[in-house]
Design goal:
Structural class: alpha/beta
CATH superfamily of the largest domain: CDP-alcohol phosphotransferase transmembrane (TM) domain
Number of domains: 2
Shape: elongated
CATH class of the largest domain: Mainly Alpha
Strand order of the largest sheet: 5-4-1-6-9-8-10
Length: 402
């Protein structure tokens, strides 16, 4: 099967500035990276000759791995004139932004189709196989009986040629960062705050890995407060850990929106999360030693929680290394059917309270109530359960691998 070909152009007589910034990336570069993420291996940029310097900048971008070519387009020429006769082509207008899933869906569709025919989106996205006699003007293509309208209700497609459209497209890009695996606190609180922060820093020279490092730095400061052991210090530390949980979403959001994801970034995020928890539990245990008369027991609980988190992390890393990913959620199975009855309800309960977002929020509540250190033995039990679960899952995983 031949690799898919995309024509990236514009039907506008006065094309939108290819360098217009959308969520930290120029429009033309964002369009190329989106098509590339959708699986398009060959992209022809068909624009007027004066846009060639913009094309050269995009082609020199290290993130661009697709075969990129430039075709000068005369003012009265159809963008589809760059499509070889008899070859199936996807035409995308670079100023209309959509998710990679939209382009994948159109490429998988066997019929020649026009996106949202009959609306203002007509002609912004289409797929067809032109022949020698094909009239490639937009008006002719829109009137063709054999061009079926493509249903875009499952996707978004936004004209980013205006300031209002650019704001709408930016919101849509960040909304796509929400994950099905987000816990209840993340869905209703953390993700709203992290997306707000990410939208405001996406245009700054802050890389996802820099954000990961800053997030871990917040955990270190939280641990420093926790070692002091007083109510005020522990409460501040727990609030900072909740901030750490919020910021933890920003690195992934920046990576996804700016196409800066990497395996190194996945590992830094995963290891940073684990180290954040380990140092915080150890610091809580250290600070709890002075509490009379059971400070030594509270301290032991904190240290057991820290050690359990460390052993569970190592078990997870062994599986991640085997599957070639650094993303912790690569180990989850969102399609696995839940267990029924009391067992299923019990498993779901513990999966909810042990999720990072919910658990750190609960830690903050316990700290503000002044009972977090006293709860360390119970937290240690939860840590041991998690460690045992991770260990058994790792053993089962490697047995299945043979």
């Amino acid at each position: 099967m031949s690799k898919p070909l995309a024509i990236l152009s514009s039907w506008r007589s006065l094309p939108v500035d290819p360098k217009a910034q959308i969520a930290g990336l120029p429009l033309l570069l964002r369009a190329v990276l989106t098509l590339q993420r959708a699986g398009v291996a060959r992209i022809v940029v068909a624009l007027p000759e004066e846009a060639r310097p913009d094309f050269d900048e995009v082609k020199a971008e290290p993130r661009v791995t697709a075969d990129l070519q430039f075709t000068p387009l005369a003012a009265d020429a159809s963008p589809l004139s760059a499509c070889p006769k008899g070859e199936r082509c996807l035409l995308a207008c670079y100023e209309w932004l959509g998710p990679p899933s939209l382009y994948r869906a159109m490429l998988d569709d066997e019929a020649d189709s026009l996106c949202a025919m009959g609306s203002d989106r007509a002609g912004s996205l289409m797929i067809l196989t032109p022949s020698e006699g094909t009239d490639l003007t937009l008006a002719a293509l829109t009137d063709r009986d054999d061009m079926s309208p493509f249903d875009t209700t499952a996707h978004w497609l936004i004209d980013a040629s205006t300031p209002g459209g650019q704001r709408e497209a930016t919101r849509a890009l960040f909304e796509d960062c929400r994950k099905p695996v987000d816990g209840i606190v993340s869905r209703h609180l953390n993700r709203h705050l992290s997306l707000f922060l990410s939208r405001h820093v996406v245009g700054l020279p802050i890389s996802p890995n820099m954000m990961t490092a800053a997030t871990f730095g917040v955990a270190v400061i939280a641990a420093a407060f926790a070692t002091q052991g007083s109510y005020q210090a522990v409460a501040i530390g727990a609030v900072l850990m909740q901030l750490n949980s919020i910021l933890d979403g920003c690195d992934g959001e920046l990576a996804r929106v700016r196409f800066e994801g990497s395996k190194l970034g996945q590992w830094l995020d995963t290891v940073g999360d684990d180290l954040s928890n380990i140092v915080f539990w150890a610091a809580l245990g250290f600070g709890a030693q002075a509490i009379q008369p059971y400070g030594s027991y509270y301290a032991l609980g904190g240290w057991i929680a820290a050690a359990s988190n460390a052993f569970a992390a190592i078990a997870n890393y062994l599986m991640l290394a085997k599957i070639g990913s650094g993303d912790f959620y690569a180990l989850s199975r969102p399609d696995a059917p839940p267990s029924a009855g009391v067992l299923g309800a019990t498993v779901q309960f513990f999966e909810t309270i042990l999720k990072q977002d919910f658990f750190l929020f609960l830690v903050m509540v316990l700290a503000l109530a002044g009972v977090l250190q006293q709860a360390l033995p119970v937290i240690a039990i939860g840590g041991v359960i998690t460690m045992i679960h991770s260990t058994l899952r790792t053993i089962r995983f490697f047995r299945q691998q043979g």
